[in-house]
Amino acid sequence: MANFGGHAIPGSFFLLYGFWLTVKYVLQHYWRTNQPKGRQTLPPIFKRLDYIEGGFQIFAAFIGIMVEQFVVDGPHAHLYNDGGWIKLMNWQHSTMYLFFGISGIALILSTKFQLVPRGVGRFGLSLALFVEGFLFYYHVHNRPLLDAHIHTLLLVAVFGGSASIMLEMFIRDNIILELFGSCMFILQGSWFYQIGFVLYSPSGVEWNLTEHANVMFVTMCFCWHLAVALLLVTSTAVVVWLTVVQFSARGRDIEIGMRNTSSELTSQKALLQESDEE
Amino acid sequence: MANFGGHAIPGSFFLLYGFWLTVKYVLQHYWRTNQPKGRQTLPPIFKRLDYIEGGFQIFAAFIGIMVEQFVVDGPHAHLYNDGGWIKLMNWQHSTMYLFFGISGIALILSTKFQLVPRGVGRFGLSLALFVEGFLFYYHVHNRPLLDAHIHTLLLVAVFGGSASIMLEMFIRDNIILELFGSCMFILQGSWFYQIGFVLYSPSGVEWNLTEHANVMFVTMCFCWHLAVALLLVTSTAVVVWLTVVQFSARGRDIEIGMRNTSSELTSQKALLQESDEE
Amino acid sequence: MANFGGHAIPGSFFLLYGFWLTVKYVLQHYWRTNQPKGRQTLPPIFKRLDYIEGGFQIFAAFIGIMVEQFVVDGPHAHLYNDGGWIKLMNWQHSTMYLFFGISGIALILSTKFQLVPRGVGRFGLSLALFVEGFLFYYHVHNRPLLDAHIHTLLLVAVFGGSASIMLEMFIRDNIILELFGSCMFILQGSWFYQIGFVLYSPSGVEWNLTEHANVMFVTMCFCWHLAVALLLVTSTAVVVWLTVVQFSARGRDIEIGMRNTSSELTSQKALLQESDEE
Amino acid sequence: MANFGGHAIPGSFFLLYGFWLTVKYVLQHYWRTNQPKGRQTLPPIFKRLDYIEGGFQIFAAFIGIMVEQFVVDGPHAHLYNDGGWIKLMNWQHSTMYLFFGISGIALILSTKFQLVPRGVGRFGLSLALFVEGFLFYYHVHNRPLLDAHIHTLLLVAVFGGSASIMLEMFIRDNIILELFGSCMFILQGSWFYQIGFVLYSPSGVEWNLTEHANVMFVTMCFCWHLAVALLLVTSTAVVVWLTVVQFSARGRDIEIGMRNTSSELTSQKALLQESDEE
Fold first, then answer.
1. Which of D120, D143, D129, D126 is nearest to D188 (CA)?
2. In this structure, is the dihedral angle defined by the CA atoms of residues A210, A212, A218 and A219, taken in order, positive or negative?
3. Sequence-distant (≥ 6) Cβ neighbours of residue C218 within 8 angstroms
4. Looking at the predicted structure, is the pLDDT value of residue D277 above 50?
5. Mutate which of A150, A166, A176, A214 to disrupt the D interface (most D C-beta within 10 Å)?
6. Are B180 and A142 within 8 A, CB to CB?
7. Exposure winner among A28, B152, C183, D141, fewest CB in 10 A?
8. How does the record classify its membrane topology (chains A, B, C, D) (predicted)?
9. CB contact under 8 A, C223 and B88
10. Which chain D residues are Cβ-neighbours of A33 within 8 angstroms?
11. CA B192, CA B187: separation in Å to the nearest integer?
């Protein structure tokens, strides 16, 4: 939707999702590094997190499609009439949401059924981002210079995230790759806000959409967003990590639900020895 | 051939081939996940499937070349006369078929002779798709906007399939990658139909080939085809899987031809234990 | 050099080199598949082949540079005078040869000194192809349509070969990848001839450099060259393989220089067992 | 900064950094190849080298930002006034430096804290190069032919380095990849000098920025820089290697700080045996 809110809402969702992924991946990484070598199965809490994540994706996609279709000036599920295609922009956005919904279904299925390979969730997410970028790519033709450029920069975050998450299908449990994916979501979210501020400024400032200096500034600004996204992911990861460490030190009872008490001492020892050696 | 049938025929073949690959890969995956760790060799039935697949590719390629050359307005195996090149379009299509024929030969050779590495069949298929995309890429120059765009979208499916199948050469037995390849074939097939409906509509509707809204709709429509292809592959995979599971439960005799009875109990136990642990 | 000979000479070299690589890789593959699992070191004869290959690359590069510089209308090692740059085309060709010379040096060093990693030879060759493609890429600007197109197609073979050989640095001893690299050299060689025939036809035929049908034919013709290159590599590989097998069956004495007699029986047995199982 | 010095200073830094990386990687490679198989932890001296490297990056980035902001005609930390954006060029350069600073911080953190994965340092460096290339890419629009081309060639070195270092995240301890990364830094450094000489020649020669022959020469010249960079990296690596070997032969006492004396003999034997076999 071509107004500030129409960019702020998806922006907020992507920001939120980026933070969610950061927290999840850090928790999983903590778990992996504190396990004895032989064990690889994640405790049930991570399954529950994945159900929540998948359910949320499906829910958000559903709401998104409904809103795009049935807002006052929406197409109301009509695609074509005598005058031609109806509100193709809204239909394109609905299509994007659809693939995030599919991603949610894939995540839930791969969590629920052991037979569905683990990578299916990632594959769905990567595909959803690819479709988003693919539609945006043809979105931006025939627009003023700055408008096209600012959307092109969005594609860097979208395709960067898609490629990174696709790679995770083959290179599992690489924390750098996982957090880079989260970072791309946060970058995308904050850039949606930036687009809103530039094209539909709530304070009423109008940008000259054809001035080259504006294009140069916006390019640089994208790098600043990237730096901030890196900082946010790093801070979140540190806070989550320290919290978990403190938590598991204060009351080890909580962890009992998460891992076998019998193997705990061994794992602690193994970890200590590793840190002595290195 | 520039009519509806000329797009429906290859479309049907690609659709069919996509389903064939889905079934084959799911059967192989079932086999792999039900084997004890030590054994890796596939039972002879898969060899027979590969012979059929390769033979079919060679046969279809041969028929395709013959039809392209000897239809009424075809070049009849003449390439050049005083007036210049004769029916280059038909020659290009023949070239595409040729490489699918080569792919069939490669598949049969790699199945027949142990010395030929297993990946040769995939390599041939990937190359055939690459050549198809390569020729289409130069096909679409100097055409009306919508015509060029709708063929460009086809290239996404073609090169996507080619890249995915090329990857399978190095990452073996990854079911997600394999089904993604099948999905790209189905997408290609259904998109061929879509091209036929848009450019040579059998119901006589004429699309405005230069209207931007049509381009936007077609782009979005491609994503819908992708969603449907994903759904078809998933449904087929589920149906095949459930059929095989039920089959092997009802009468285990069939399987005797497929695997060693002595190792069967062990493998069943191993599987059960794995599912208990996870 | 802008005449038929100037394209036939490098074409012949690339054809020859493609066949050489095919033979070498098939011999190495035969050796690997006939070795017991534990042993990995190649017999000294392969070292000698690499010395010859490297020496030949250096020699050919030296001759190439000399010819480009000191032909009658060459720059005679002068780069700049009052009138501007002298014969930049010849200088660019000399630069291409230089990198093939560097590739030869890299191959000899990596063969001679154990400390130099094995992949350095491949890296050098991949880089030489990259530089060739890189220079050709800027070569083709401002030329007639067909001239630019036919050189662009050459780039497909050049960059395809460069990428494939770069991959070999990381994925060692993959016979498909190795033969694909050889195939790209043969394709490049035969395409050089094709360029010579089209642009400087020895029979005096003049092609219309701006006609679109010619571009379409040339694109298709490139695919035919690829098919022929695949056929040539396959035939060569089969002939070499059969020769080696027959050779080692008739008189095993020759092999004694190539491998340890003590381990021979074991390896034969291991191979037989493998083929029984599979 | 648009003068000779503004290109010579970053050029010198990149040259220096390229040599530093070469020396570091060769030392690490020497260490790895002289270790018994079981041990993998690097001695403390390499940690110290990484601290120095990271500290240097942060320091250089800080100085760079300060200079760009507070030179006489700089923006003095003002970004916008009534007349529009202030000195965006300086702001863009500051942004590039910022990411090299972030890279330094990442390197120090990954060296200091065992919990931070080793690859984070490489990731930061790769990202810094990517951002540099990203900003340069939009830098070069709307410039004269030669100016745009000479900066585009810089991008080859920048993105080549970024991709190579990104690969190092996944393919660890590959000396060819590591030295290729160093080579790209040296190439970038020497090419900065070349840009300075061409666009702001200190001897006052003015190049015709629109002549096609100049573009052709500059393209070829880039390849010569690459050849020289390869030569420099190779020579440096050989000199460092020979020095280390001689050093460790003359007085083995120095090494005691670096490796366990008890395991030394074993490792020497293992190495000798390996070289006998191969």
1. D129
2. positive
3. C146, C149, C150, C153, C194, C198
4. no
5. A176
6. no
7. D141
8. Multi-pass membrane protein
9. no
10. 115
11. 9
* Mean pLDDT of the A84-98 span: 89
As a whole number of angstroms, the distance between CA D45 and CA D258 comes to: 8
Chain D positions in Cβ-Cβ contact with residue C102 (cut-off 8 Å):
227, 230
Nearest CA in chain B to C242: B115
C131: pLDDT confidence band, cut at 50, 70 and 90? very high
Phi and psi at residue D171, to the nearest 5°: -110, 95
For residue A267, the distance in angstroms to the closest alpha carbon of chain D comes to 16
Q: Which residues of A are less than 8 Å from B33 in CB distance?
A: 115
Residue D129 Cα, gap to closest chain C Cα (Å): 21
pLDDT band at B39 (very low <50, low <70, confident <90, very high): low
Mutate to test the interface with A, among B169, B171, B176, B232 (most CBs of A within 10 A): B176
How far B230 CA lies from chain A's nearest CA (Å)? Answer: 9
Do D138 and A219 count as a contact with CB atoms less than 8 A apart?
yes
Q: 């420099």: which residue's tokens?
A: D232
> CA C46, C51, C54 angle in degrees (round to 5)?
120
Tell me, what's the pLDDT at C273?
46
- Report CA Rg, chain C: 22
Contacts of B99 in chain C (CB under 8 A): 223, 227
Q: Which residue of A has its CA nearest to B207?
A: A84
Total CB pairs under 8 A between chain A and D: 53
Between helix D212-250 and helix D175-199 the angle, nearest 10°, is 140
Partners of residue A123 in chain B, C-beta under 8 Å: 176, 180
ipTM of model: 0.86
Strands C80-81 and C84-85: antiparallel
Q: Do B213 and A85 touch (CB under 8 A)?
A: yes
- Cross-chain CB nearest to C88 (options D174, D176, D216): D216
The dihedral built from the CA positions of residue C103, C104, C105 and C109, taken in this order, carries a sign that is: positive
A192-to-A187, A202, A226, D213 alpha-carbon distances in Å: 9, 14, 13, 45
- CB burial of D170-183 (b: ≥16 within 10 Å; e: otherwise) equals beeebbbbbbbbbb
CA distance B83 to D237: 63
Least confident of A47-61, C192-206, D68-82: D68-82
- In single-letter form, the type of residue at position D12 comes to S
CB-nearest partner of C227 from B84, B92, B102? B102
Q: CB distance C278–B41 less than 8 Å? A: yes
Q: C212 with C146: CB under 8 angstroms?
A: no
D204 class by beta-carbon count within 10 Å (0-12 exposed, 13-18 middle, 19+ buried): exposed
- pLDDT tens digits for range B151-177: 999 999 999 999 999 999 999 889 999
Q: What is the CA radius of gyration of chain A?
A: 22
Concatenate the DSSP letters of all residues of chain A into one string: --SHHHHHHHHHHHHHHHHHHHHHHHHHHHHHHTS-TT--PPPHHHHHHHHHHHHHHHHHHHHHHHHHHHSTTS-TT--EETTEE--HHHHHHHHHHHHHHHHHHHHHHHHH-TTS-TTHHHHHHHHHHHHHHHHHHHHSTTS-HHHHHHHHHHHHHHHHHHHHHHHHHHSTT-HHHHHHHHHHHHHHHHHHHHHHHHHS-TT-----TT-HHHHHHHHHHHHHHHHHHHHHHHHHHHHHHHHHHHHHHH-THHHHTTS-GGGHHHHHHHHHHHHHH-
Q: Residue D40's pLDDT band (boundaries 50, 70, 90)? A: low
List of chain C residues whose C-beta atoms are within 8 Å of the C-beta of residue D33: 115
> What pLDDT is stored for residue B49 in this prediction?
92
Measured between CB atoms, which of C156, C176, C220 is closest to B92?
C220
Residues in chain D: 278
